[in-house]
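Q: Here's a chain of 241 amino acids. Please give me its 3D structure as tokens.
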Amino acid sequence: MGMSARDSTGMVGQMPVVAAGVRDHATISRLRLALRAFALSLLLAASLFAGGFGWFANKVSHLTTPADPAKADAIIVLTGGQSRLDAAMDLLASGKGERLLISGVHPSASRRQLQAAIGGDKRLFSCCVDIDRAALDTIGNAEESAKWVENHAYGTVILVTNNYHMPRSLLEMGRLLHGAKLEPYPVVNSNLDNGGWLTKPQALRVLFTEYNKYLLALVRGIVPLKPTPGGISLAETKVGG
């Protein structure tokens, strides 16, 4: 039996409603897929971040101060603690380098005040210690240190800083000291080996902060470089250290 005009009209009237429902269902499905993909991306990013932090903390916690480092042409110490300065002066006094650069000294600190704070042989400090007051962060340390190394044509340099600060310092220095070899001399103030950093909130905070700065330093490596009047290539965008 044929379909009546009324039935035919009723079916036609319902077709737009059915089509709209199909479109809405498809939109909802795509939205769910997008949300799932976003959630998985966040989970993956969080897992990578946490795994990277574990690697970083483990690497730093296993850094030790060399008992008898090989002799180098010069020594660079990045300010940030008395123990760093004491270690650098001891290396200079023991003949591990010809000269010492103290990078990142506060502009208001005079040479006499710095020598008094460090102590040691005044004549050694007078003859063989250079002071950089221009650097304000790790990036500045690298820039000023590179100028100093190139001006003196040093081939090997002992780099002194705290263990947690060493990975980022080597990264920033390595970008600019193309002709010199860096020998790390990490200063260890607190034993973090065997997961000790997990039980020390202060150490955990320092490591986490430094890890984030290390990641930012890695990102800086993607930024194009440009030559400066001094002949040293610097990233066009800087991140505070």
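Q: Can you summarize the key feature?
A: Helices lie at 5-61, 82-93, 111-118, 122-128, 138-152, 166-176, 201-220.
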